[in-house]
Structure formats: structure tokens, C-alpha cells
């Protein structure tokens, strides 16, 4: 058994790479992490919250008393989650100085939006919020998966179960400043052997390893040597397996606990020139172990950094010196990094409400089934008294008069008032509210104004959660861009929608090699009433405060870019016609029409690129050479326009000629078919009229075939090109 003297005593948290105690040290620290979580009661609390979210309030069942569960906690959770995710929130890229029209920022913003949609980031965000409202904490890990997208690789977000995450030191208040973070999860032996084939022969189920401990295993079972390394290892394994799904014993016997330990390591190496540098990028090292620390699956530098990227360039990426994990709490608790959830405040009220409702149902059932007085001498068996219509025959009239119901018990009204009180207190503490509260008795309420007031109140009640989950979005976006800078070595396509039309672009790592900053729009995680926005847009348009484009954008009108273009061509076309009266050259008119129908951003981009020619207006002082160049440019433009028109007319004439030729060819084929039918009919008529004997008939037929060949109706027309398969 390892002793305290065998533990690592170096300057770093873990022994150096290749040391025989690396795996053991990882599991020793993991045992401390899980032990601290158990001491805080986190696992017990989380399991209880999960049970309540499944509407399992009663730990026992009863056949005598109805146990009713009306899950107010579920209602509160669903309202909170839907409000925080209804607006499909995402992160925005903010430009840091420089040119305000830098296309690189716009390209990256569109790439971020494309990744958010294509990789189903909204669904993952809902899962994170659900975890946060259940357990009070949600954890995400953003990774680079080189096997996704058919080997091209893509950034993925992994939802981490709070049961499978920890950090060291255990009293750290900010996991981002911890010395190490742990992500541990059970995996089947088959999966582990496929993922790490070079270690396949060493990977065994954890139960097999524990069974090989012999007397040491008996000490663990008996509870002795609780401070030993093996005790911490055993407790860690059993704690994780006990919080996973309801696996059978055979399934557990085929699983192994895999532990990722991301640790700060300040080891330095000496370069050939005598200078020194940190061995690991960003001073981050990732060690993956299994089999209770006996097998080190990998020990590698920061996996979030591309080793082929120059150090000076890699240092600008966000994950250079940060963990790829984000821990966000639903409600902050300054005494612990794990935070707390609303369930802790509402649990007792929800249970008391269910107790009151169960008591009410019990009294209701009791009142619905009153007792019947049936004298023993009535002569009517008890089983004859049922709810179904029927006949009973007492012995005499006196006995019949003695059969009667006891007085119907009354349901106390206080029970109903108590249940209503608990419900009211529940929603008062939770801060959520019903939509019908917008209705004010005796006062007319405008719909969108009432909705706006409700959303404003919701924003106030959810302000703390909005800040926390907004940070989750920012961190996810920063990590995505960091992986773009490191691993988008191959160009890839992305699409976006602009004015109702789908556009496409290409992005690579070179497009992101500059300082980046992300933000989340204030309140973007809260729902926004589209009805309210549309009504406001119509009012503002009527008052001239917004233009047609802004109105159509708010209405989300399909094909709005074409609508705007057609509307813009109306006055512009009239203006061009008036300018033509002044004798302006035709190239000028074409240029005016083109400029007038261009979008504002498109015009600014073309002007900046010098694609709009400068016209030689009268009164401008220009040298002769510049005027000559401009005239040549105008002549070239005029010649180009004239050539394009001529080519267009030529193509139209060719198309018309080809169409006429095909029609003529088809008509000739139809004529030949009709002529053949006529000649065939004449020949058959001659055969029928001939009544000679067999010899004469044979001679006549031979003569007719010869005559037919001589006057054969063979067509000299050709099939059209379309009928010949395009040849």
C-alpha cells in the first residue's frame, strides 16, 4: 500500500511527465475534490432537486391516502428557462478601434452566427440553463473535434454534468483561478480501448482492478485506513458510478472511470541558445488517466492550442492560458463557487402545497363516499349497496326506514384557502407571474403595452440570471473564436441571410488573426415581443421616423430587398428620363441609374474601392491628361455596354432562329408520317380487291412490293436537333 512518503513532494501539483506516480497523484487529488463535494452535501442536494424536477415529491406510496403532486417547481423552471432562451440569444463581435468598416469583423460575426445555427448551439444553451435551474450550477466544455464534419473538424460544446466536475484547491471561489480542474466520467472499456489503442491491453474495468487489490480491498470495504490513497480512489469511483444512470451490474462491470486533469504547470525548458521558456503553452497541461490511476492514457500540452501555430500568434488566442470550461451559477453564493438554485428557496413551499392538495382530495373523496347505516336485521346484504341503480328488499317497513346515509361530511374551506396561500407565496418568492396579471379590472389594456410592461418586470426579476447566463454565452463565443484562430487551417464555407436573400462566404484562421472582443446585447437572453415591435414599427413609419427598409426588416418581409429595389427605381427612373432631355450621354444615364439603385452599404463599398468613375463635370479644374483618361474610360464603358447589348440581341436572334428551325423540322416529320399512312391504306385496298388464284395473287403481291419500292415514300427531311439527343 502506498504510504504518505510515496506521495509527490515536488514544486508542481503533478509529477513530471513520465513519472510513475502521475496517475496515482491525479486520483489522490480527485478523491479530495469528491470528498469535499460530499462534505458540502452537493451530491445529495442535487439528487433531491432532480427527484423533485421529475415530480417525485413522495418517497413512499399509500393505498389509503391519495398523494397528489402538483409540481409548481416545474412551472417555475419552465417559465424561467423559456424566458431566458426565447429570444435565441447569441454573442456579438465588437470592433476594437481601427477602420469602422473593417470587413473582417463582419465576416467573423457572420461565421459565428452560422456556427451557432448549424451546430445547434441554441439547444445546448437550453440544456445548460436547465442544469443551472435544477442544480444551481451549469458547466460547459468547448472542444475542438478533429473527426467531425467528415474529418474537416469543428468546434463543439459539451454539457458537463455537475456530478462529474471539480476543481482544486477545493476552497477556491473562482474555478478560472484554480490550480487544476477535473472532468471525470465513466466509459465502457470497449470505447476506451478504441480511443486509446496504444493502451488497450492495460485498460481494465474498475471492478476488476479493485478485485485484484486483495487484502487492501478488504480494508477499504471494512472502512479502515480511510485516509489512504486507495480509500480515496475507491470512494471516487463509487461516487461517480452511483450518480450515473440506472445501469445494471453487468453494465457497471464493463465500465472504467476516465479522468481528465487540466493543471497549471510552470516547468521551464532551456533552449539551445541558453534562454528558457515554459514547457507547456499557457502553462496548461492535460493528463488523462484511468484504472484508478494505474494507466496514464495521455499527458500532453494545452490541447486548446495548435502546436503548429507560431507562439507569438498562438498567444493572442483566448484559450492560451485559460481552461476550456465555463462554470456559471443560477444564483450567486459568495461562500462557495457552486452557487445555489431557486429550488432551495421554494422546496418547502412546494411540498406544503402538495400536502394541502392531498388533504383536500382526501376530504373530497370522503365526502363523495358517505357511510350507510344498514341494520343487521334488515335482511339486505351489504354488497347490495352499490352506486349502480338496483332494488333492495328489506324484511319489513320498519327495517327499511332504518336504512339511511350518515350526514355528508363537509370539506373545510380553510383547506382551499391554505392551498391558495401556499401557491401565492410560492410565486411571490420565485418572482414569476401569470400573464393574465396584465389585465386590470375596470381598465382597458393595450396588448403590446401590457406585454412590454410584463417583459420589463421579468427583466428586473431575472437581472442576476441574465448577467450570469450572458457570461456563459460570451465565454462560449470566445472559445469558439480561439479554436478558429488555432484550427481553421482549411478554408470552409458559411452562409448568412441579408435582406431576405442567402449569401455565402469563406473563412479560415487567417481571417481571425487580430484582437477580438465579444459582447452580449443587454437583455438579449429575455423574450422580445415581435407583435410589439411590429406595431411600434408601423406607428414610427406613419410618423416618418423610420424608412421602408427598417419597416420591412421589423416585419420580416420575405424578399424585402427586391421590394425596396423596385420602390427605389420609381423616382430614380423618372429622374434619369429628365436628365436624358438635357442631352446627357447614354453611358451617363446608365451610370446614374446604377448608382441610384445601389444599397447604401454597397455604394459606400464601391466608392471606397474606386469602382465608381469620376465624371468630367464642367467647371472642374483638371489637367488634360486626366480628362483624356476619363474620356477613354467613358468610351470604354460605352463600348462595353454597346457590346453587351449587341451580344444579347445576337443570342436572342439565334434562339429565335433555332426555335423556327425546330418547328419546321417537326412539321416535316408530321407530313411524312401522314403521307406514309395514306400510301399504306392504298396498298391494302388493292390487296383486298384482288380475287385471283394463288399464283396470280403471289405475282400481284410481288409486283406491288416492287411498285412500292419504286414509289417508296422515303423522307428526305432530317430530324430536329432536339429529337437527335442534342447531337
| Radius of gyration over C-alpha positions, nearest whole angstrom | 42 Å
| Count of separate DSSP helical elements | 23
Q: Runs with pLDDT <50, length 5+?
A: 1-6, 212-228, 435-446, 722-727
Overall strand count = 16
- Tell me the strand order in the biggest sheet: 4-5-6-9-10
**Strand content of the residues, in percent?**
5-15%
Helix content estimate? 40-55%
Sheet/helix structural class: alpha+beta
Cα(first) to Cα(last) distance is: 87 Å
Question: What is the assembly state of the chains in this entry?
Answer: single chain
Largest sheet: 5 strands, antiparallel
Averaged pLDDT:
77
Q: Given the C-alpha coordinates, what overall shape results?
A: extended
Explain this structure to me?
There is one protein chain. By secondary structure, the chain is an alpha+beta fold. Among the domains are: 163-329, no CATH class; 637-724, no CATH class. Helices cover 49% and strands 12% of the residues. It is built from 23 helices and 16 strands. It has a 5-stranded antiparallel beta sheet with strand order 4-5-6-9-10. A hairpin with a 5-residue loop joins strand 7 (268-270) and strand 8. It is extended. The N and C termini lie far apart (87 Å).
Amino acid at each position: 500500500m502506498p504510504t504518505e512518503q510515496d506521495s509527490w513532494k515536488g514544486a508542481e501539483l503533478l509529477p513530471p511527465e513520465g513519472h510513475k506516480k502521475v496517475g496515482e497523484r491525479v486520483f489522490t487529488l480527485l478523491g479530495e475534490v469528491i470528498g469535499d463535494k460530499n462534505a458540502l452535501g452537493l451530491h445529495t442536494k442535487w439528487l433531491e432537486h432532480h427527484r423533485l424536477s421529475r415530480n417525485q415529491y413522495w418517497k413512499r406510496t399509500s393505498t389509503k391516502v391519495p398523494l397528489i403532486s402538483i409540481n409548481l417547481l416545474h412551472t417555475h423552471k419552465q417559465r424561467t428557462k423559456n424566458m431566458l432562451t426565447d429570444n435565441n440569444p447569441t454573442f456579438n463581435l465588437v470592433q476594437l478601434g481601427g477602420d469602422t468598416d473593417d470587413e473582417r469583423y463582419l465576416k467573423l460575426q457572420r461565421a459565428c452566427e452560422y456556427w451557432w445555427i448549424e451546430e445547434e448551439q441554441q439547444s445546448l444553451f437550453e440544456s445548460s440553463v436547465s442544469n443551472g435551474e435544477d442544480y444551481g450550477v451549469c458547466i460547459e466544455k468547448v472542444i475542438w473535434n478533429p473527426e467531425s464534419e467528415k474529418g474537416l473538424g469543428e468546434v463543439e460544446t459539451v454539457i458537463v454534468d455537475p456530478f462529474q466536475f471539480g476543481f482544486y484547491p477545493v476552497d477556491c471561489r473562482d474555478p478560472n483561478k484554480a490550480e487544476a480542474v477535473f472532468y471525470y466520467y465513466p466509459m465502457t472499456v470497449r470505447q476506451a480501448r478504441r480511443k486509446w489503442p496504444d493502451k488497450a491491453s492495460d485498460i481494465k474495468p474498475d471492478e476488476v482492478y479493485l478485485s485484484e487489490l486483495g487484502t487492501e480491498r478488504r480494508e477499504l470495504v471494512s472502512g479502515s485506513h480511510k485516509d489512504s490513497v486507495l480509500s480515496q480512489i475507491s470512494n471516487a469511483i463509487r461516487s461517480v458510478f452511483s450518480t450515473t444512470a440506472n445501469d445494471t451490474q453487468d453494465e457497471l462491470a464493463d465500465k472504467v472511470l476516465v479522468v481528465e486533469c487540466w493543471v497549471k504547470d510552470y516547468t521551464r525548458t532551456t533552449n539551445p541558445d541558453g534562454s528558457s521558456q515554459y514547457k507547456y503553452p499557457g502553462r496548461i497541461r492535460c493528463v488523462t488517466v484511468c484504472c484508478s490511476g494505474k494507466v496514464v492514457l495521455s499527458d500532453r500540452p494545452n490541447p486548446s492550442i495548435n502546436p503548429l501555430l507560431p507562439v507569438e500568434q498562438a498567444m493572442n488566442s483566448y484559450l492560451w492560458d485559460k481552461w476550456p470550461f465555463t462554470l456559471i451559477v443560477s444564483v450567486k453564493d459568495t461562500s462557495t463557487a457552486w452557487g445555489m438554485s431557486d429550488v432551495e428557496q421554494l422546496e418547502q413551499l412546494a411540498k406544503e402545497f402538495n400536502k394541502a392538495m392531498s388533504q383536500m382530495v382526501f376530504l373530497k373523496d370522503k365526502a363523495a363516499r358517505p357511510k350507510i347505516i344498514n341494520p343487521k336485521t334488515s335482511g339486505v346484504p351489504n354488497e347490495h349497496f352499490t352506486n349502480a341503480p338496483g332494488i333492495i328488499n328489506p324484511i319489513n317497513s320498519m327495517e327499511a326506514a332504518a336504512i339511511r346515509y350518515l350526514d355528508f361530511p363537509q370539506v373545510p374551506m380553510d383547506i382551499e384557502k391554505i392551498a391558495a396561500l401556499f401557491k401565492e407565496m410560492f410565486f411571490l418568492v420565485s418572482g414569476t407571474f401569470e400573464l393574465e396579471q396584465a389585465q386590470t379590472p375596470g381598465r382597458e389594456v393595450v396588448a403590446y403595452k401590457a406585454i412590454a410592461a410584463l417583459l420589463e418586470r421579468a427583466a428586473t426579476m431575472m437581472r442576476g440570471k441574465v448577467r450570469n447566463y450572458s457570461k456563459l454565452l460570451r465565454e462560449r463565443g470566445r472559445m469558439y473564436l480561439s479554436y478558429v484562430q488555432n484550427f481553421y487551417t482549411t478554408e470552409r464555407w458559411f452562409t448568412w441571410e441579408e435582406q431576405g436573400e442567402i449569401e455565402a462566404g469563406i473563412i479560415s484562421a487567417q481571417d481571425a488573426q487580430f484582437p477580438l472582443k465579444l459582447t452580449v446585447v443587454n437583455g438579449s437572453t429575455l423574450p422580445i415581443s415581435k407583435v410589439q415591435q411590429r406595431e411600434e414599427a408601423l406607428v414610427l413609419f406613419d410618423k416618418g421616423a423610420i424608412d421602408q427598409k427598417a419597416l420591412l426588416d421589423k416585419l420580416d418581409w420575405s424578399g424585402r430587398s427586391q421590394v425596396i429595389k423596385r420602390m427605389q427605381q420609381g423616382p430614380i427612373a423618372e429622374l434619369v428620363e429628365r436628365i436624358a432631355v438635357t442631352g446627357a450621354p447614354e453611358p451617363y444615364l446608365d451610370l446614374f441609374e446604377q448608382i441610384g439603385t445601389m444599397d447604401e452599404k454597397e455604394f459606400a463599398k464601391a466608392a471606397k474601392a474606386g469602382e465608381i468613375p469620376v465624371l468630367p463635370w464642367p467647371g472642374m479644374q483638371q489637367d488634360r491628361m486626366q480628362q483624356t483618361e476619363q474620356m477613354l474610360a467613358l468610351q470604354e464603358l460605352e463600348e462595353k455596354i454597346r457590346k453587351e447589348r449587341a451580344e444579347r440581341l445576337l443570342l436572342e436572334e439565334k434562339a429565335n432562329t433555332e426555335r423556327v428551325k425546330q418547328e419546321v423540322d417537326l412539321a416535316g416529320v408530321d407530313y411524312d408520317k401522314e403521307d406514309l399512312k395514306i400510301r399504306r391504306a392504298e396498298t391494302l385496298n388493292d390487296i383486298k380487291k384482288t380475287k385471283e388464284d394463288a399464283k396470280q395473287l403471289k405475282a400481284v403481291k410481288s409486283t406491288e412490293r416492287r411498285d412500292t419500292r419504286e414509289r417508296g415514300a422515303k423522307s428526305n427531311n432530317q430530324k430536329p436537333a432536339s429529337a437527335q439527343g442534342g447531337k
